[in-house]
Amino acid sequence: MYTPARVVGNSIILWDNHLTINKGSKDGIQKGMGLITERGVVGIVSNVTEDFAQCVSILNGKVRVSATHKNSGQFGTLLWRGEDPRKITLKDVPKYAEIEKGDSIVTNRFSSIFPDGISVGTIDTFWVERGTNFYNIELNLTEDISKIRYVYVVHYLFKNQQLEAEGVEEDE
Question: Which superfamily, per CATH, for 2-60+147-165?
Fold first, then answer.
């Protein structure tokens, strides 16, 4: 199930970017729900009032989301490095995965926030980190977070049954 919402606040130049939407608890919105558009992943609900919800953007250095290279099925973790708001990094994909520039990256079945197969981006560049067996993959996001006006809040039915840690890192 999805609830449409309008974006009423948005930041893209900070390390901890957020969005505000015009839906809240009276609309069934809860902390931990995902935000998407027709084009791809946007963020995660972090705070809810009766009429509004604050959401951490995918462009937030504390957000971690599981994602998969669509062609090979190999998965890793998405993170934003705080640089270009049109790009995000997928790390920990094994170096034996056959990847190419332009390949699609999508959410996967390990996600407790997003349904399987929601677009994240396409591969721009990739490299193996020295001393590791894993790729760092820079993606072009399929959604331009700076231009979004409307989103869908994901009411993911199996969220409470997932055990994997995903979402927003808590301050210690």
Answer: Rod shape-determining protein MreC, domain 1 (2.40.10.340)
Name the residue ranges covered by the structural domains of the chain: 2-60+147-165, 63-141
- Which residue in 51, 59, 48, 66 sits closest to 15, CA to CA? 59
pTM: 0.87
Instruction: Tell me the pLDDT tens digit for each residue of 5-46.
Output: 999 999 999 999 999 999 999 999 999 999 999 999 999 999
How far, CA to CA in Å, does 117 sit from each of 47, 70, 80? 26, 8, 20
Q: Give the integer Cα–Cα distance in Å for 135 and 143.
A: 23
Q: Are 160 and 26 in contact (CB under 8 A)?
A: no
Whole-angstrom distance, CA of residue 11 vs CA of residue 59: 9
User: How many angstroms separate the first and last alpha carbons of the chain?
Assistant: 33
